[in-house]
Amino acid sequence: MLWSDPDDEPPEELRETQVMLRRLGILMALAMVLAMIVIGLSG
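The structure assignment produced for this chain is given below.
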């Protein structure tokens, strides 16, 4: 942590973006698992 960084919480926009990215990552992982299952069943 740099000396110039504030000690307070990150701004609301940054937190919302982090939550959205986390949800997007979970959705992408689920989509990949489903795609592998579909490919495996059709193979």
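Interim note for the steering committee: The chain is about 70% helix and 0% strand. The chain has a mean pLDDT of 89.
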